[in-house]
Amino acid sequence: MKLYEEFTRELKGIGRSVIPGDLVYKLYDTYGFPVDITTDMADEDGLHVDKDGFEKALAGQKERSKKGSHIKGEEWNEGHLAILQMSLSNVFTGYETLKDEGIVQAILVGNEIVEQIGEDQEGELFVTRTPFYAESGGQTDDTGTILLKAGNVRARVIGVAKVKEDLFAHRVLVESGTLRRGDTVLLEVDEEKRKGTARNHTATHLLQFALRSVLGDHVKQSGSLVEPGRMRFDFTHFEAMKDEEIRKVEDMVNQKIMDCVPVTINVKSREDAIREGATALFEEKYGESVRVISIGDFSRELCGGTHVRNTGQIGSLYILSESSLASGVRRIEATTGMGALAYKRKVEGTLRSIARKTNIEFERVESRIEAILAELASKEKELAHFKEDIVLSRVDGAIAGAPDIDGVKVVTLFVENASADDLRKVTDVVRSRVKDCIVVVGTQGPDDKGLIVASVSKDAQKTYSAGKIIKNLTAHYGGKGGGNPNTAQGGVPGARVRESLKNVVQFMGN
């Protein structure tokens, strides 16, 4: 009830009247609120429910439930089912270390459980202990290496997925030697990749804090993607963020980064964590014991991901874009650390290149570009008028040379690189100068597509139809078109436009 009241208050505050379907679904799925009750409450408050959005969210959950595993649907095979029947499990040690030692419990190659995997083969290893983080909670999986403890065998870990909560599939490519079930192996996570992922994951927590501070408490995380080089954060909000709001959010995050705020991790009961104010994702299902990630005294979230030890390790954050994802849901893409520095250098390099090419100071690039664009717009306007004058000067010649068919002038004209609107303007000019006429004009675009527009004066429509003329003409010359008795247009191959205009008279009949 409190969530509903907070959300609807924010909704009314910004003049919106539709409750997004994903919120209706969260009320239903997490708190057991029947949709009809939410609808009745919305009606009483003068609001409406996005029922289509709710059905879409419900269908998505049903699809996820069918899969019943952390392994993506397309990755399931008979081998995974057999692995599950073996009642295997592993201990995850990746929160404490990036290196560990374990025993190979099972090997999967394709659909087959095998005893060994050799050089240049790709498969999946199931090990008793692992420091490798499996993709979950929006955070990408680790990569790294697995080595035979006693021997010259090396496998590259190219991905890690959860078969179940306590069993990870290590997708490997064996680069040398042979690994066998029962081997003791050394597992080592790619440290630089993990550090990049941790920077971006902690940054999503800072970003949520900043968004709620700038936009309001209605902001809720609705999805995320955390990778070594970038991050993506989806959140509830009803309109595009203003440039000023984006700057405020970015500045707030970077201030917290520069403050080098400690990041602490505690494991406690879910009930205690929620009571203490920790933020939880509605779509996540938590166990009785949860990890609470706290950043200073301003951010506290339930999270199973990997993080930096203090915010200073993030380096900096740069927001790359803010866009719409769905009704009532926005998306921010950002980068941190060296990624942010690299993007800043790229932008700065582009600006300095423009400054050199335009021979102006770096600080005056924006004003110079604005001046160039204004000058270009003016020249384009002049060119359009000049082009129009040239075309109109040819109209009189076209009228003078037009054949007369039973008192109806048949005027045709080819116009270089014209739009449909340009062609229609030409037909209007001809009709303003000739009482009884059929006007057919065409052009050939830069993509070698031909366009033909026809127009028939009111009196001439008693005998002729622009739509039928275009239909007959385009069909004969390998195109298609149509319209009404007054106006019509169609397309033919660009190389045949001039030929078709020369033969309009042949296609005027019914």
Which tags fit this structure?
six-stranded antiparallel barrel; Elongation Factor Tu (Ef-tu), domain 3; six-stranded mixed beta sheet; 510 residues; alpha+beta; elongated; Threonyl-tRNA Synthetase, Chain A, domain 2; 13 helices; 4 domains; single chain
What's the quick description here?
This protein has about 500 residues and is of the alpha+beta class. The protein has helices spanning about 1-15, 20-30, 35-45, 50-65, 80-85, 190-215, 245-260, 270-275, 335-360, 365-400, 420-435, 465-475, 495-500, and strands at about 20, 50, 90, 100-110, 110-115, 115, 120-125, 130, 145-150, 155-165, 165-175, 180, 185-190, 220-225, 230-235, 265-270, 290-295, 300, 315-325, 330-335, 405, 410-415, 435-445, 450-455, 480-485, 485-495. The radius of gyration is 33 Å and the shape is elongated.
Query: What is the CATH homologous superfamily assignment of the largest domain?
Result: Threonyl-trna Synthetase, Chain A, domain 2
Classified by CATH, the class of the largest domain is Alpha Beta
Rough outline: elongated
Q: Domain count, please report it.
A: 4
What about the largest sheet?
Answer: 6 strands, antiparallel, barrel
Residues in helix, % = 25-40%
**Helix count, DSSP H or I runs of 4 or more residues:** 13
Strand order of the largest sheet: 4-7-11-10-9-13
Give me the CATH fold name of the largest domain: Threonyl-tRNA Synthetase, Chain A, domain 2
Write down the overall mean pLDDT.
88
Gross CATH architecture of the largest domain: 2-Layer Sandwich
Structural class: alpha+beta
User: What is the number of strand segments?
Assistant: 26
| Strand composition percent | 25-35%
**First-last Cα distance:** 70 Å
Give unreliable regions as ranges: 64-70
What does the radius of gyration come to? 33 Å
